[in-house]
Amino acid sequence: MSLTQDILSTWRGPRRVQARFLGQGRNEVRALIFVLIACVLMFVAATPYQAREAQLDPEVPLMARLYWSGFLYIFLIPLLVYALAGIVWLLARVARRQVSGYQIRFTLIWALLAVSPLTLIVGIVAGYAPGLALQVLGFVWLAIFGWFWASGLLVAEDIT
Questions:
Q1: What is the pLDDT at residue 1?
Q2: 3-state secondary structure string across 94-142
Q3: What pTM was computed for the model?
């Protein structure tokens, strides 16, 4: 199945897609590629906001804003994703859950990638119509991301 079809299928039923991915075994290359794709899409989503800020405050040019935004999304966010997965893995060990570090990592990464269509919409709203709509959309993004990740963690625990 193609990546876009997997993302659309996740919006219909995240457990099936996560179960299929986790059932294929450990694949760190896939996880790394997925986190990099998700981070590039987050960078693209942040571009309208950065352009708006550069227009409102020309003291910092757009290219400088995009440079630092790219550094954040493409270099630092993947490291933070892996760190968060490590913390959740430690908490799972304390709670005596039978979920591997890879399963936690992959479900987190897949949730970030699967929510990327909404991430792009959030980026457009942040760039063109910030305010209450952006706050509501941010809450919706967080709820859907949490749903995808929690569904993946439940599947991972069922598999083990």
A1: 67
A2: HCCCCCCHHHHHHHHHHHHHHCHHHHHHHHHHHHHCCCHHHHHHHHHHH
A3: 0.93
Do residues 50 and 65 make contact, with C-beta atoms less than 8 angstroms apart? Answer: yes
Q: Is the dihedral of CA 3, 109, 137, 134 positive or negative?
A: negative
Residue 82 has pLDDT above 80, yes or no: yes
Tokens 């966010």 sit at which residue? 77
Dist CA 150 CA 78 (whole Å): 20
Radius of gyration for the alpha carbons in the chain, expressed in angstroms and rounded:
17
Decide: 107 and 28 in contact? Cβ < 8 Å: no
Token readout for 142 is 């967080």
Q: Quick one: angle between helices 101-114 and 14-23, nearest 10?
A: 140
